[in-house]
Amino acid sequence: MTLAIIGGSGLYALEELELEKTLSLLTPYAEQPVCLYQYRKGLSTCLFLPRHGAEHQLAPHEINYRANLWALDKAGASSIVAVNATGAVDPCLEPGSLVLPDQIIDYTYGRENSFYLGKHQLKAHIDFSEPFTPELNTQISAVADSLGLPIVKQGTYGVTQGPRLETGAEIRRLARDGCTLVGMTAMPEAALARELGIPYASLCLVINKAAGVPGAQLNHEFLMLVLEEGIVVVKNLLRELVSRYSPDKSLYMR
Ligand code: HPA
Description:
globular, 5 helices
């Protein structure tokens, strides 16, 4: 039973930790195996999965979320901290901000969003009123606080289909709906984790103000620069999370 980290854009390896082994797991959901990395920091280990692939070859709608979550479950993930690059719908959030959202609105379509597709059961109607595990959010915030890292402790993550960024009108609609962040990858990932009963949190790095938000800069160079700088901070936080929680004082577990 171990902490698992899902890396998003800009996070393809945890170089600060020692790579112990690579696992290759066949799943019922893909012909290709899912590749997981096991890292060590002192007494602690963690599993790592870069959701876009090691070379960022998969767009958000092309990711096989079911295979990924199934593999993490089989490998013994007891909690999942997912890292997501996001845009800010809330005009008060600046690029570089870290946010732990507590709510989701799902605007995606056509994704395989349940382990029960084609074999429906009553238990498929999972309670998703709190899509992120509050205890896990609390623990991540505590580690950020102890490092003196500012982190916003609530937010609503609107998940769009992509891969294009949104129109100004789409972002205004998300704002009216109550979204503070926009990204493309938290769903169906969060719901699949809940179906498996694995505590799940999303650590969001804001890399831009979303389309039409005053001050928005959406050119690729700017996004990549903010991403690169922000991921350094995210890695520091993750390193501390992994090392602070040895198996006997583990993160909130199922
Ligand atoms: N929109 C959707 N996804 C994103 C954005 C955005 O502005 N920035 C980073 N991921």
